[in-house]
Task: inverse folding
């Protein structure tokens, strides 16, 4: 049973993903599809941080840097090349390269936790400031104007490979984004199951021990950081295809949002941050509309997000996935016993005899008791009568 | 006499004004078993950390089979064939016992062979029965055994054990003694321990640390009756 | 000659502004090893407190020097009691929670005051050096930065409170063993750090105006200055401010203000690569 669960989980994710991939374009209106494309590209971004923070323990406050870099690389290259295929490849490669440089700098300098956060944050701020002031002719890269504060509204849409000018329709872009999301999700799973992935997780658990076993931890951290950068670049590419690129992509709120998605969904899971991302995007959109309704002017998205983040850090530090798992366990344990207060005394003793520790009260909830109770709720009541 | 597997020359580790290890000249032969004793704060653990690259020595040199390894990175030293069990068990709490040991085995051998080595190490240390448990949930003695299995799995040439018996039950200690003797047939070992009973059971040659330097070195029977060693342990100043 | 004087003044001003915006954060980081990501919003709150008080008829100097630090200091103590104290020893969680606080404060202030710039004109008029003119208020701020550093040093060096603070900085567990309640020390520290931020926020309001999102303009620089400076509150902040402020001004004069900022950030990144524990983590370890 315990081996079956992860398999069932994977199947459920795959089915849900494919259902969205094929179902949505058939029924939904264009603006819904575009919105869903944004969600999918953000979900890929969430996966990039889920991977490097949740599994490798590298808290990057500047994941937005790779996201923005991916988007801008694509836009600039696509405008210059005419054909978008090479531009799309560059949009993944350049952020990966940048992550390699930055990572080399940080991991070979043995910069730890907080300082790493500061440096990544700083780098994304540098990029933000820099891109923000690139208005004007002198900042054109080839034929592409960087556009400063306004970004590049003329960001080209992907064309079919080898056929410049034949742009993908919004449904195709959505299918691509959703397909990539599914691919990245299972790609991350596969990566974590390899020797490399296990060493990375071990580094999160105890870096010094991994080094004492003879692994060069710097190389592993660098490699996973580069993967994270590439995935974030990919999400930037898809975002550029659903909206357009602007300096906001590099901004602190974007970096922050990614962290919120991961912490709300649950550190150390992949599906959690994806769900957290989609929930938060739906919530933010809804708050944005609610804000316009008379009487709800006090509902400010920042206020709500901030409070949610504080509540999660203080009260639900393990995130929604762990909370859901606990809830399921609680329900499984309690469903057959709606009136568990009236459990016969003699039975308690039986249950406890197996183990000397723990209180009697606890014993009512523990699994050995299930042996005595028929599975149906009515049967449960009968046994306590 | 053959070349030593491990040798330190004037090894010194200074923290600000405190000299934790002070000009230690230490030498260990191939397949030798050496016990290191000394009161708390004598510099034993710091000495180990200098050997494994967790600390960069302030002065002096560490030679492993004639190569200088002083100031090398931990992973590079481990790759030469040095395994250490640290004083506080350094394990992966969030992973299972088997995964812990597998990580150690997989460094030297990929694929199937790593699985085989993992099983062998689990059997050798006698923790096959708890292979599926999460390490974070284990008792201190069991965690010690897990770390021991991690050290043993890749078959390093030199094994450093820092207080391996701490927190173990009598049965576990018996197993540990057997294991150390068996390991010593093929590997060189340095064992730091406080428990004199334990020292008596495994030791042949003993080195006594005091105030960061080697106080005396010799046969276990002589050392345990040495007046200076007794003074050091009872807290009086050695002459 | 005038040009040199004005350049020197600009450098002093840039350094002083870094000292000012970093000091509150430095106190909290140095004493508690807590990174307060809501620091920028503490400054913002100080600015709003000063402007609101002034608009309600309070004397400008009173509003900036008394009302702003008191308001934010009290707010800081409340925050410490409600949030920070539950997260001691969990550095990352503290960063995340204070970051949530920062978002919530931005949201709240937006709701109350609206997303517009409010401002007050700088007092003290202007100052003429040869052919150049500069605001006398900016010179005043340089003096304030100097006074705060000297006063901070005197408090740490000569008072009982300072002794407890130094003890806690060196070894919190030991200070607790000597009968100083860490809980109280931390609450006071956070309050003092917040009050300093409030004071500075109030003082900067006439120069920059206030807007709910102004914290973001401060936080990165403050953050970087403190981390670059290392654990020593005063000398770390002063040295790092001196270094980074000079680089910033030099690059601004030579190129553009944006490149000045980029150079500041880049310098800090390189500095941290060389000295991962900050300047005072390597040098001047026994300084305050």
Result:
């Amino acid at each position: 049973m315990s081996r079956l669960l992860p398999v069932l989980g994977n199947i459920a994710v795959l089915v849900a993903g494919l259902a969205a991939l094929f179902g949505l374009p058939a029924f939904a209106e264009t603006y819904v599809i575009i919105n869903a494309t944004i969600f999918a590209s953000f979900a890929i971004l969430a996966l990039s941080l889920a991977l490097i923070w949740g599994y490798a323990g590298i808290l990057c406050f500047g994941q937005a840097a790779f996201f923005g870099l991916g988007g801008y690389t694509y836009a600039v290259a696509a405008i210059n090349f005419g054909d978008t295929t090479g531009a799309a490849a560059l949009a993944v490669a350049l952020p990966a390269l940048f992550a390699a440089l930055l990572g080399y700098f940080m991991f070979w300098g043995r910069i730890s936790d907080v300082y790493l956060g500061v440096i990544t944050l700083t780098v994304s701020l540098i990029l933000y400031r820099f891109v923000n002031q690139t208005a004007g002719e002198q900042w054109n890269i080839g034929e592409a104007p960087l556009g400063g504060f306004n970004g590049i509204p003329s960001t080209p849409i992907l064309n079919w490979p080898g056929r410049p000018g034949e742009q993908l329709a919004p449904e195709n872009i959505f299918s691509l984004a959703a397909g990539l999301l599914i691919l990245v999700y299972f790609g991350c799973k596969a990566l974590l199951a390899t020797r490399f992935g296990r060493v990375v997780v071990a580094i999160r658990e105890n870096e010094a021990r991994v080094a004492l076993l003879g692994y060069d931890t710097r190389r592993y951290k660098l490699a996973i950081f580069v993967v994270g950068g590439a995935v974030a670049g990919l999400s930037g590419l898809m975002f550029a295809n659903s909206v357009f690129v602007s300096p906001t992509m590099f901004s602190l709120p974007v970096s922050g949002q990614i962290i919120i998605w991961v912490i709300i969904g649950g550190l150390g899971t992949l599906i959690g941050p994806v769900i957290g991302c989609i929930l938060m995007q739906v919530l933010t959109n809804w708050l944005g509309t609610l804000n316009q309704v008379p009487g709800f002017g006090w509902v400010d998205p920042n206020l709500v997000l901030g409070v949610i983040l504080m509540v999660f850090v203080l009260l639900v530090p393990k995130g929604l996935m762990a909370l859901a798992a606990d809830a399921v366990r609680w329900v499984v344990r309690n469903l057959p016993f709606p009136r568990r207060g009236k459990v016969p005394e003699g039975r308690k003793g039986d249950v406890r005899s197996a183990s000397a520790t723990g209180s009697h009260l606890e014993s009512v909830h523990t699994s050995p008791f299930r042996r005595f109770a028929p599975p149906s709720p009515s049967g449960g009541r009968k046994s306590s009568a | 006499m053959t070349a030593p597997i491990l040798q330190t020359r004037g090894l010194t580790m200074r923290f600000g004004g405190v000299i934790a290890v002070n000009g230690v000249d230490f030498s260990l032969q191939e397949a030798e078993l050496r016990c290191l004793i000394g009161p708390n704060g004598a510099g034993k653990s710091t000495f180990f950390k200098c050997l494994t690259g967790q600390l960069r020595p302030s002065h002096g040199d560490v030679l492993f089979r004639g190569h200088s390894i002083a100031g090398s990175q931990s992973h590079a030293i481990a790759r030469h064939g040095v395994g250490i069990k640290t004083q506080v068990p350094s394990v992966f709490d969030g992973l299972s016992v088997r995964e812990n040991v597998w990580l150690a085995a997989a460094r030297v051998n990929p694929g199937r062979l790593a699985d085989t080595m993992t099983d062998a190490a689990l059997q050798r240390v006698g923790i096959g029965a708890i292979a599926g448990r999460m390490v974070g949930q284990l008792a201190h003695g069991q965690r010690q055994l897990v770390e021991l299995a991690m050290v043993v799995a890749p078959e390093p040439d030199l094994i450093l054990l820092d207080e391996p018996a701490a927190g173990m039950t009598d049965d576990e200690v018996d197993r540990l003694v057997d294991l150390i003797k068996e390991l010593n047939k093929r590997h060189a070992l340095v064992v730091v321990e406080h428990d004199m009973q334990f020292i008596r059971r495994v030791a042949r040659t003993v080195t006594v640390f005091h105030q960061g330097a080697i106080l005396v070195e010799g046969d276990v029977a002589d050392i345990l009756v040495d007046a200076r060693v007794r003074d050091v342990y009872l807290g009086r100043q050695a002459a | 000659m005038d040009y040199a004087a004005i350049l020197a003044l600009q450098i002093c001003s840039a350094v002083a502004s870094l000292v000012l915006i970093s000091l509150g954060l430095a106190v909290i980081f140095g004493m508690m090893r807590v990174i307060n990501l809501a620091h920028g919003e503490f400054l913002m709150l100080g600015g709003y407190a000063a402007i609101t008080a002034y608009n309600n008829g309070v004397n400008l100097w009173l509003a900036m020097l008394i009302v702003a630090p008191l308001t934010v200091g009290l707010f800081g103590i409340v925050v410490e009691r409600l949030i920070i104290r539950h997260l001691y020893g969990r550095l990352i969680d503290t960063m995340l929670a204070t970051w949530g606080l920062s978002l919530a404060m931005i949201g709240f202030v937006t709701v109350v005051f609206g997303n517009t710039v409010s401002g007050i004109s700088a007092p003290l008029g202007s100052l003429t050096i040869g052919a150049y003119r500069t605001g006398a208020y900016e010179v005043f701020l340089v003096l304030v930065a100097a006074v705060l550093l000297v006063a901070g040093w005197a408090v740490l060096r000569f008072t009982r409170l300072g002794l407890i603070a130094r003890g806690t900085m060196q070894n919190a567990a030991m200070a607790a063993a000597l009968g100083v309640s860490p809980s109280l020390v931390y609450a006071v520290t956070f309050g003092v750090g917040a009050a300093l931020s409030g004071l500075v926020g109030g003082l900067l309001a006439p120069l920059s105006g206030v807007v709910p999102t102004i914290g973001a303009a401060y936080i990165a620089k403050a953050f970087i200055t403190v981390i670059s400076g290392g654990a020593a509150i005063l000398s770390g902040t002063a040295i790092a401010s001196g270094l980074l402020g000079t680089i910033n001004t030099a690059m601004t004069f030579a190129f553009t203000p944006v490149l000045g900022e980029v150079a500041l950030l880049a310098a800090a990144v390189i500095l941290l690569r060389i000295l991962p524990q900050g300047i005072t983590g390597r040098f001047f370890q026994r300084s305050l």
